[in-house]
Write a structure and sequence with these properties.
With 131 residues, the chain is an alpha+beta fold. It contains 2 helices and 7 strands, in the order E-E-E-E-H-E-E-E-H. It has a single domain, classed as Nucleoside Triphosphate Pyrophosphohydrolase, CATH 3.90.79.10. The strands form 2 sheets. Strands 4-1-6-5 form a 4-stranded mixed sheet. The chain has a 3-stranded antiparallel sheet with strand order 2-3-7, with no helix packed on it. A hairpin with a 2-residue loop joins strand 2 and strand 3. The protein starts with a strand and ends with a helix.
């Protein structure tokens, strides 16, 4: 499969960031996904938030970009372009989707349970005082 680029949406409420629980995956993952065709990062963030959480996202602001080994293919990398954003609505799983739930985590969460790219982002969120 090779190297991939993904957009991550990081909704933060009360110093907690929203994460997704995905069917068949032990780790929490970020909201977001791969950029398709000619869409911008912002368009990808909006599409993925609607698909995964059934709500909109607004006030997108780039936070950071990290690169790390992929969990499913450690010889390849993932570039994770991270954006702060406010959800427009309450996140809820779509029936039959791979995203089965949502959880807000704070700075006390055990970051070793996160995929490598999100672990880097989580540690930066904590060190920057967002969590």
């Amino acid at each position: 499969m090779g190297n991939i680029v993904k957009v991550a949406v990081l909704p933060i409420v009360d110093k907690r960031v929203l994460m997704c629980r995905k069917l068949g995956v032990d780790a929490l993952i970020n909201l977001g996904g791969k950029v398709e065709n000619e869409e911008t990062d912002e368009q990808c963030a909006e599409r993925e938030t609607l698909e995964e959480a059934q709500c909109g996202v607004k006030d997108l602001v780039h936070y950071t970009t990290v690169t790390a080994p992929r969990v499913d293919e450690p010889s390849s990398t993932i570039e994770l372009r991270c954006y702060f954003g406010q959800l427009d609505g309450t996140p809820k799983p779509r029936e039959g989707d791979k995203i089965i739930g949502f959880e807000y985590i704070d700075r006390t969460y055990n970051a070793s349970k996160l995929p490598p790219a999100m672990r880097k982002v989580f540690e930066k969120l904590v060190s920057d005082g967002h969590l």
